[in-house]
Design brief:
five-stranded antiparallel beta sheet; about 475 residues; five-stranded mixed beta sheet; Beta-lactamase; 22 strands; alpha/beta; globular
């Protein structure tokens, strides 16, 4: 009995010393880090196996989270929608199809805010119309985008991030993430290179002013006239190697609608008129393309994709309100409601206005983020798909080029976050004794993201030991 008592005392002492050593090592790193002389950081580490906080530094302060906010969106989506939730895009018609293949009615395209809808999916819609026997639409091709309001950017987004692909124009109808891929292929010296644009559509035009293998033409530039909300793609400068650039298109819903019309016409289906409206209840269904939540979740976390996160964010609002025409407030209320009643935190103390972390108006604390990581870990149906979708250190996603050696390698599963002045990292790591730790690091007022990332990697290596 005395021996068992001594073993228990030794175990408790060792655990205490281990905790002190961990806290001491992190304190030493924080106090000696040159980066923090001109910037701020908030850190929180929780031992999920033992159920106790093991380190905290300025964890109650508010910070802009950048893309680690996608964890809050993802945890809420997995809890409220479940991993079996689907995003539906439908095509249907009213009226009748005559013997000579004319639709005496309207063809309806109903958007479901599917962020993974690609060119091959568009082909399926066109094929469904063709297989129905329709060869001419006497009425209109009507796009129903009533699922959300008409505001196409998130609150607090930076207007000058367009025309970059990471800031698409949000809509219930999104083709190829609201973007086109422009490939420039050099020709003979002095000749204009070949320019290929996908998805193929008549919605945009190309103005190719570039030359092949002429350095005096300057650096190759691919852009569009975005200040005028135009969709003319300009290619200029010197094309000396094959390259691909992705640009967003102004008005995702128009891009989708016009491209479907273009594909229908190529299949010999005449469409005379394009418009917007609400699909009636009484229609003949032609085809529904259903997208499960899992690939949307994985892209949001692995690739830190903003559109995927916003799709989950808005569907939370749709699911909670049960209505159409929702805006960011409906989605925000869904997140706040979950935060208050499920996670147990007061939403009045934080600001979350989008699902991706892009907004300048988002403010959370490391303490809040830890609560979400704890909540997820305690529920297998949430933790398993979440953990699987997180980037793995040195392996994939946004962590593929970080922590490629040491104990953190293949061990850290975490979400990165980067916007101007902010670098963050939050997720899970197994300690040397096998305990699972949740951690949050938010660096603020950072001019060089590389320095912040190096600091975060040092913390992860300490935790992994």
């Amino acid at each position: 009995m005395k021996r068992i008592g001594l073993i228990l005392i030794s175990f408790i002492v060792c655990c205490t010393l281990g905790a002190q050593t961990l806290a001491g090592r992190l304190d030493a790193l924080v106090s000696s880090e040159k980066l923090l002389a001109t910037s701020e950081v908030g850190i929180s580490v929780f031992n999920l196996t033992q159920g106790k906080q093991v380190y905290a530094y300025q964890d109650k302060k508010l910070y802009r989270p950048a893309s680690i906010e996608k964890l809050i969106t993802s945890v809420t989506a997995l809890a409220e929608l479940s991993e079996y939730y689907v995003f539906n895009t439908r095509i249907a018609y009213t009226g009748t199809v005559t013997q000579d293949s004319i639709l005496q009615g309207d063809l309806y395209l109903v958007g479901g805010f599917d962020p993974e809808f690609m060119d091959e999916d568009m082909n399926k819609l066109a094929e469904a119309v063709y297989n129905s026997g329709i060869r001419s639409v006497q009425g209109h091709l009507v796009a129903d985008v009533s699922l959300t309001d008409s505001i196409y950017w998130g609150t607090g987004w930076s207007w000058d991030d367009t025309p970059e692909s990471f800031q698409p124009y949000l809509s219930p109808l999104m083709l190829n993430r609201g973007c086109v891929n422009i490939t420039v292929i050099p020709a003979a010296k002095g000749k204009r290179p070949k320019v290929e644009v996908l998805p193929e559509s008549d919605y945009y035009t190309v103005c190719n002013l570039s030359k092949s293998y002429l350095p005096q033409e300057g650096q190759l530039k691919v852009t569009r006239d975005w200040l005028n909300n135009g969709n003319t793609i300009y290619v200029s400068g010197n094309a000396n190697y094959r390259c691909t650039k992705t640009l967003n298109m102004y008005s995702s819903k128009d891009f989708f609608l016009h491209t479907l019309s273009y594909k229908l016409n190529k299949k010999g289906i005449a469409v005379k008129s394009l418009t917007y409206g609400t699909c009636p209840d009484e229609v003949t269904e032609l085809y529904t393309l259903s997208r499960p939540l899992t690939p949307v979740l994985q892209r949001a976390l692995k690739k830190s994709d903003n559109l995927s996160a916003e799709a989950m964010f808005y569907h939370l609002g749709i699911h909670r309100s049960g209505k159409k025409g929702i805006g960011f407030k409906d989605a925000q209320n869904a997140v706040y409601d979950f935060m208050k009643h499920e996670v147990g935190c007061n939403p009045d103390e934080y600001s979350i206005v989008d699902g991706s972390g892009v907004s300048l108006y988002n403010y959370i604390s490391p303490e809040l983020m830890i609560e979400y990581l704890k909540y997820a870990y305690s529920r297998a149906e949430i933790f398993c798909p979440l953990y699987e979708a997180l980037p793995v250190a040195g392996v994939d996603g946004t962590l593929r080029n970080r922590m490629k050696q040491g104990k953190a390698y293949r061990n850290v599963h975490a979400k990165t976050g980067t916007v101007t002045g902010v670098s963050s990292l939050a997720g899970y790591v197994k300690a040397g004794n096998g305990d699972m730790l949740a951690f949050v690091i938010i660096n603020q007022n950072v001019l060089k993201g590389k320095e912040a990332r190096a600091f975060q990697d040092k913390i992860c290596e300490i935790l992994a030991h």
